[in-house]
């Protein structure tokens, strides 16, 4: 039996609220997310809370164990390397498949997202950084006929949101991200797709390196 629309909407709203709490730092790494406390806070039963926590575990934001229940994940070097190495491997493949098919309308959408990204950074609306970054990347890949890879990359970008906010706390990293996004769009529009794919891999690797430096992780 399919869940009702009301139930799916409630579950999605709870998922987003708890996710934003983690990404914004309201729930710091190591915080125990007790189902009963969250249910009371949101005025719901524990069932949709449990569903949201399982989804957050799949995104890598929460770890669930029989002893401690759900705990906000630490920012570890192993996870950073895992997430970003997968992105370096998969995103250029998507770009190679998608970029030759991008239309004028697609490029207008990319330009609009880039402008929104610049505005979010200039206005310091931190909650929009990761979302706009993910939307811009996925907009570059949406013409690729590779649904499984696109789904994996979308999940990786969701996980990367937490890291993107930290990485963009560095002014130099913010400026470089804006410039590199503009260059990626330019390379795709000018038909230099192979160069764009190489540049994309370099861009994602630079984001990872910036993040490691900001966090001072050995």
UniProtKB/TrEMBL annotation:
One GO molecular-function entry: DNA-binding transcription factor activity
Domain HTH gntR-type: 8-75
Superkingdom: Bacteria
UniProt keyword annotations, A-Z: DNA-binding, Transcription, Transcription regulation
Matches recorded under Pfam families: FCD, GntR
InterPro entries linked to this entry: GntR_C (IPR011711), TF_FadR/GntR_C (IPR008920), Tscrpt_reg_HTH_GntR (IPR000524), WH-like_DNA-bd_sf (IPR036388), WH_DNA-bd_sf (IPR036390)
Keyword DNA-binding in record: yes
PANTHER family in UniProt: TRANSCRIPTIONAL REGULATOR, GNTR FAMILY, TRANSCRIPTIONAL REGULATORY PROTEIN
Protein name: GntR family transcriptional regulator
Annotated organism of origin: Phyllobacterium salinisoli
């Amino acid at each position: 039996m399919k869940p009702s629309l009301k139930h799916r909407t409630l579950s999605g709203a709870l998922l987003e609220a708890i996710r934003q709490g983690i990404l914004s730092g309201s729930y710091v790494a190591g915080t125990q997310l007790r189902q009963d406390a969250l249910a009371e806070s949101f005025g719901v039963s524990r069932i949709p809370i449990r569903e949201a926590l399982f989804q957050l575990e799949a995104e890598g934001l929460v770890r669930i164990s029989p002893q401690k229940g759900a705990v906000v994940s630490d920012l570890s070097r192993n996870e950073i390397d895992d997430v970003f190495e997968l992105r370096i491997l998969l995103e250029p493949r998507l770009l190679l498949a998608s970029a030759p098919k991008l239309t004028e309308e697609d490029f207008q959408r990319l330009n609009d997202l880039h402008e929104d990204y610049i505005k979010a950074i200039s206005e310091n609306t931190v909650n929009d950084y990761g979302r706009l970054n993910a939307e811009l990347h996925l907009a570059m890949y949406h013409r690729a006929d590779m649904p499984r890879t696109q789904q994996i990359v979308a999940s990786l970008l969701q996980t990367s949101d937490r890291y993107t906010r930290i990485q963009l706390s560095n002014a130099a990293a913010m400026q470089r991200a804006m410039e590199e996004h503009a260059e990626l769009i330019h390379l795709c529009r000018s038909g230099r797709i192979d160069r764009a794919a190489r540049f994309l891999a370099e861009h994602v690797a630079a984001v990872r390196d910036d993040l490691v430096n900001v966090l001072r992780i050995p």
